[in-house]
Design goal:
three-stranded antiparallel beta sheet; 3 strands
Length: about 50
């Protein structure tokens, strides 16, 4: 499982954990997150994330 970091605020998306508050189940690969998902901290899109 990989981790992805928001380049704006530093939020870390961990594929092993997911983003349960946004309905993203644990084990969901970053590539499989819907394109309209945004950073739960600062609200930027997936294009602002880099692999950790």
């Amino acid at each position: 499982m990989e981790k992805w970091v928001c380049t704006v605020c530093g939020y870390e998306y961990d594929e092993a954990v997911g983003d349960p508050d946004s309905g993203i189940a644990a084990g969901t690969k970053f590539a499989d997150i819907p394109e309209d998902w945004v950073c739960p901290v600062c609200g930027v899109g997936k294009d602002q994330f880099e692999k950790a």
